[in-house]
Design a protein that fits this description.
Structural class: mainly alpha
CATH architecture: Up-down Bundle
CATH topology: Growth Hormone, Chain: A
CATH superfamily: MFS general substrate transporter like domains
Number of helices: 22
Number of strands: 0
Radius of gyration: 26 Å
Number of domains: 1
CATH class: Mainly Alpha
Strand content: under 5%
């Protein structure tokens, strides 16, 4: 057999020569430098995740220790989201002023102070002061991490890398749940203080780690520091050709002539962000208006569909489902955090392969089914005189499937989408508006959920969330174009094309309907 000629093996000698010369395409390798930058920046999101997760269990012990009512607990749990509005409102302007990198450091420093204050709180008022300071840090972190990550990421991996903030929110959430369980055995007056105070530790390491990161190349161009921007782009792009294209696109967006090769140039004040609010809100173009609707809308529906009700009040929901003891409730809550974290990790590998739109729509569809199932299960348990095991199992399964569905699409895509769709000049302020909407709705849900289920039953609350999720599905299906693989400077064109295509499609549909009616009238 070894002596047979190539022709006898079904392959000619000429073909074999060509095959030997053929260099098959190599699989795409991720840019390790961009990966490291995105990971360091996104780790700031652990601060929010940890605070949300730890307060889920800590509220049980705070209520017992400080003798608080349900109304005070609602405010304590949800108010940080409204406090974070202060941080997100000024984070856009701060990041344009001192840079994306130092804004991340500032976020960590502010949260550190807030965590220390909460850990040493002696009463409810003192605790609320700590929540206010921590909330400002959370607002800064939520706005700046996705923006920085999107601006350093090459187009081939932007979906993967800009999903990191949501990954680390979930990692922080899981750490918070574990912290609740770990410190729950301490004396009542110490346990919750350790739970909240330990959050100061990661913020120190995060702030120090971020100092080793480069500044955003887009921010450097906005400051006229072209040579520094080129160095960063060379390191964070997949090739030198891509680096040159990215630099040319950013220069065009910043109003710098393409043939300008100076190391430092003077950038007009308008390019640095003056007149942004006017362009966003007062006189937006149809494309900017579409982008604004999408960027704010996705953050509204992300929270209005009930994720924070499940995350913040999972021990109460499990109690309503029939799990009464504190330890099993905390362990079940850890399971929620574990499932959320696993599925967000899975989502990161599909964002740049499947695309944003298919993942988002399938995610919302799964959320709708899970919310309806959870509403049914909780309603049955609520109206039963004895424990129904299958209904309890249904509640647990649908809670886990809901957080899994959320994490596979809605969770990460809200941050990915809003960080990549705004034009360069409008990006920081546009993202801060999205974050503001996110935190307002989250705060409202957090501060009203107990009152809501007291008013319309626990099952009715989740039927309400499922109705909102149905509206979200229609909204996303109608208004959201695919942005996968596009450079940030190309995304604006995608929205403009999508908007015009939708308008033209609606016009054609109306013409077709008119033609059908005319034909019927003729016959």
């Amino acid at each position: 057999m070894a002596d047979r000629k190539p022709e006898e093996n079904g392959v000619s000698g000429k073909t074999k020569e060509l095959m030997a010369d053929f260099d098959p395409p190599k699989p795409h390798k991720r840019n390790k430098y961009a990966f490291a930058c995105a990971m360091l920046a996104s780790m700031t999101s652990i601060l929010l995740g940890y605070d949300v997760g730890v307060m889920t269990g800590a509220q049980i012990f705070i209520q017992k220790d400080l003798k608080l009512g349900d109304g005070q607990i609602e405010i304590l749990v949800g108010i940080i989201n409204l406090y974070s509005l202060v941080g997100s409102a000024v984070a856009g302007r701060t990041s344009d002023w001192i840079g994306r990198r130092y804004t991340i450091v500032l976020a960590g420093a502010i949260f550190f102070v807030g965590a220390i204050l909460m850990g040493f709180a002696t009463n409810y008022a003192f605790l609320m002061v700590g929540r206010f300071v921590a909330g400002i840090g959370v607002g800064y972190a939520l706005m700046i991490a996705p923006v920085y990550t999107a601006e350093v990421s090459p187009a081939s991996a932007r979906g993967f890398l800009t999903s990191f903030p949501e990954v680390f929110i979930n990692a922080g959430l899981l750490l918070g749940y574990v912290s609740d369980y770990a410190f729950s055995k301490l004396p009542l007056h110490l346990g919750w203080r350790f739970m909240l105070g330990v959050g100061a530790i990661p913020s120190v390491f995060l702030a120090l780690g971020v100092l080793g990161m480069p500044e955003s190349p887009r921010w450097l161009v906005m400051q006229g520091r072209l040579a520094e921007a080129k160095v960063v782009l060379d390191k964070t792009s997949d090739s030198l050709e891509e680096s040159k294209l990215r630099l040319a696109d950013i220069k065009e967006a910043a109003g710098i002539p393409e043939d300008c090769n100076d190391d430092i140039v003077q950038v007009s004040k308008q390019s640095k962000g003056r007149g942004v609010w006017k362009e966003l809100l007062i006189h937006p173009t149809p494309t900017v208006r579409h982008i604004l609707m999408a960027g704010i809308g996705i953050h509204f529906f992300q929270q209005a569909s009930g994720i924070d009700a499940v995350v913040l009040y999972s021990p109460r929901i499990f109690e309503k489902a029939g799990i009464v003891a504190d330890t099993p409730k905390l362990l079940a809550t850890i399971a929620v955090g574990f499932v959320k974290t696993i599925f967000i990790l899975i989502a990161t590998f599909f964002l740049d392969k499947v695309g944003r739109r298919p993942l988002l729509l399938s995610s919302v569809a799964g959320m709708i089914l899970s919310l309806v199932g959870l509403g049914v299960g909780l309603t049955i348990v609520d109206h039963s005189d004895h424990k129904i095991n299958w209904a309890v199992a249904l509640c647990i399964a649908t809670i886990l499937s809901f957080v899994a569905s959320f994490s596979i699409g809605m969770g990460p895509i809200a941050w990915v989408y809003s960080s990549e769709i705004f034009p360069l000049k409008l990006r920081a302020q546009g993202c801060s508006m999205g974050v503001a909407m996110n935190r307002v709705v989250s705060g409202v849900i957090g501060m009203t959920f107990i009152s809501l289920y007291d008013a319309i039953t626990i099952g009715g609350a989740f039927f309400l969330f499922s109705s909102i999720a149905v509206i979200a599905f229609v909204f996303f299906y109608t208004l959201f174009p695919e942005t996968q693989g596009k450079n940030l400077e190309e995304v604006e064109q995608v929205f403009g094309t999508f908007f015009r295509w939708r308008s033209r499609q609606a016009e054609l549909d109306r013409e077709k309907e008119a033609e059908i009616i005319t034909n019927k009238s003729l016959y």
